[in-house]
UniProtKB/TrEMBL annotation:
Domain of life of the organism encoding this protein: Bacteria
Keywords attached to this entry: Hydrolase
InterPro entries: Amidohydro_3, Metal-dep_hydrolase_composite, Metal_Hydrolase, YtcJ-like
CDD domains referenced in this protein's UniProt entry, alphabetically: YtcJ_like (cd01300)
Pfam families registered for this protein in UniProt: Amidohydro_3 (PF07969)
Protein name: Amidohydrolase
């Protein structure tokens, strides 16, 4: 498998010497300089040796003590939705229901030309009222205009009457509730109607905004998780085309549609997708009570929603493997993850375990794991594409997970240490706009997981957010700054670098240079995170911080 290149050819990239900083490279843990040539890393080493290269390069960059690392890969992004949240109504900061309604009212007044008002990010579990806005409240706040307002997890939404009027027979669809958030088929229908109102120009502006923002955070690659229940084909192909034609992070596309034949597989490839994976829903989300559980929710008398059973999973994985495509699924609840594991194992019994392992099929989110499913991930060679910011946002004994599941079950979620001990490859992402693009914050969230036994080292978390994303697309030769690797890197202003010592726990630190391990910024909660000064993809600069 190979990723799509979304930049000018690497051989047109300038030859650059970076010197006078710290270069995070396993090839030389004390490196202070690096040469980039032809879009690849050509050399890393010491400041003294760098003099030999200075006269033969197109540019010399004085790092002035800055840190150079591999660029981050965000392994789960919804790019257009991210851009719309950056340029539109974002309710993540709303402190109360009244605050949210006031923001809706102000947004509607400011966007009189929009055919449909689009917002994002509300989370009623954080509001003192403990409930979402009613349709009547939204009708009043918008003056009766169409409004689509998904919950932060994007698995349910509140809407206005005017938007419902655009969807014939919506009241007959599963998941329709007269005055509660829409889920399931009803939610998908109103989302499609809302997104259909976005013009191609608005969409392109949103995509550019998202990719610019990603580049400004040191992200060199995003995995776009599209699909017929997420966006539409035009959105997906337009994003890949835009990323082909304009400088910025590379975009690797996944299209979440079931494959049952060679014809289906060809269609996925024709769209430009690397695999039929990403948000192919086995279930929903915990926040919306739609993740599929073995036992009922603590705050609801049901077990959520199952969208795929083991037989459907097996058929999809078998067809994808035979076609040379990556398969993958969105699975959060323990019952959904169990169905995915059972289905992949059934495919392995048909095709042989080596073929299944070689395909590197993916599971997105993978939150409610058990020791048995962790072992199965390792056995089947599944990639765990996970989002540590979920735990930072909703974990802990008083968080949303504990409300939905009870404290005991909530403490089992997102067991990153157990996954690493079992040898399961991790690829970190944000699921933006569900949680923001924030790579260093993601690394910190994994290292300081709210459940201490699930914490992993900063080094392991950093690897999962750099090299892990490349491994998840079948590339083992990228994501590190070693000679021959793609020149995807970021330059950072950071505080003192430290080396996290090997430990069965997480929090013992060492700055002993004898460790032979390249250092990383200290990410203690509350400390400032590194600031991105420059982002480079395949040797081409895609971001430079102003006035630096």
């Amino acid at each position: 498998m190979t990723e799509r290149e979304h930049l000018p050819p690497a051989d047109t990239a300038p030859t650059v010497l970076l010197r006078g900083g710290d270069v995070h490279s396993p090839a030389d843990p004390f490196a202070t300089a690096m040469v980039v040539e032809g879009g690849h890393v050509a050399w890393v080493g010491s400041e003294g040796a760098a003099d030999a290269f200075a006269s033969g390069v197109d540019e010399v960059v004085d790092l002035e003590g800055a840190l150079v690392t591999p660029a981050f890969t965000d392994a789960h992004v919804h790019t257009t939705a991210t851009g719309l949240s950056l340029t539109g109504l974002d309710l993540a900061a709303a402190r109360t229901l009244g605050d949210a309604l006031a923001r809706v009212r102000d947004f509607a007044a400011a966007r009189s030309a929009d055919r449909v008002l689009l917002g994002h990010g509300w989370d009623a579990t954080r509001w003192p009222e403990g409930r979402p806005p009613t349709r009547a409240e939204l009708d009043e706040a918008t003056g009766g205009r169409p409004l689509y307002l998904p919950r932060v997890d994007v698995h349910s939404a509140v809407v206005t009457t005017a938007l419902l009027d655009l969807v014939p027979d919506v009241t007959a669809l599963a998941g329709y509730h007269p005055d509660a958030p829409l889920t399931g088929a009803a939610h998908h229908a109103v989302r499609a109607a809302a997104h259909a109102a976005v013009t191609p120009a608005q969409r392109a502006d949103a995509q550019r905004a998202a990719l610019r923002h990603a580049a400004s955070l040191g992200i060199g690659t995003v995995h776009e998780c599209g699909g017929p229940e997420i966006s539409d084909e035009d959105d997906f192909t337009a994003l890949l085309k835009l990323a082909d034609e304009e400088p910025g992070p590379r975009v690797v596309g996944y299209w979440a549609e079931r494959v049952e034949s060679d014809k289906d597989a060809r269609r996925v490839r024709e769209l430009g997708a690397l695999g039929a994976a990403g948000d192919l829903f086995a279930d929903g989300s915990l926040g919306s009570h739609t993740a599929c559980l073995h036992e009922p929710y603590a705050d609801a008398d049901h077990r959520g929603s199952a969208h795929l059973d083991a037989a459907a999973v097996a058929a999809h994985v078998t067809a994808c493997t035979e076609a040379g495509l990556q398969a993958g699924f969105h699975a959060i609840g323990d019952a959904a993850i169990g169905a995915v594991v059972d289905g992949v194992r059934a495919a392995a019994e048909t095709l042989g375990l080596p073929r299944i392992r070689a395909a590197r099929h993916r599971v997105e989110h993978a939150e409610m794991l058990t020791p048995e499913t962790v072992a199965a991930f390792a056995e089947l060679g599944l990639i765990a594409s996970v989002q540590p910011a979920f735990d930072a946002a909703w974990g802990g004994d008083d968080g949303m997970y504990a409300q939905r599941l009870g404290v005991e079950r909530a403490r089992t979620l997102n067991p990153y240490a157990a996954l690493l001990r079992a040898g399961v490859p991790l690829a970190f992402g944000s699921d933006s706009p569900v949680t923001p693009l924030d790579p260093w914050g993601t690394v910190r969230a994994a290292a300081f997981h709210r459940t201490p036994e699930h914490r992993i080292s900063v080094r392991a978390a950093f690897t999962a957010h750099t090299r892990g994303g490349w491994r998840a697309i079948g590339r083992d030769d990228a994501g590190t700054l070693v000679p021959g690797a793609p020149a995807d890197y970021a330059v950072w202003r950071a505080d003192e670098l430290v080396v996290q010592a090997p430990d069965d726990r997480v929090a013992r630190w060492s700055t002993d240079p004898r460790s032979g391990t390249p250092g990383l910024p200290g990410l203690t909660p509350g400390a400032p995170l590194p600031v991105c000064l420059r982002t480079v993809v395949s040797g081409h600069t895609v971001f430079v911080r102003p006035n630096e």
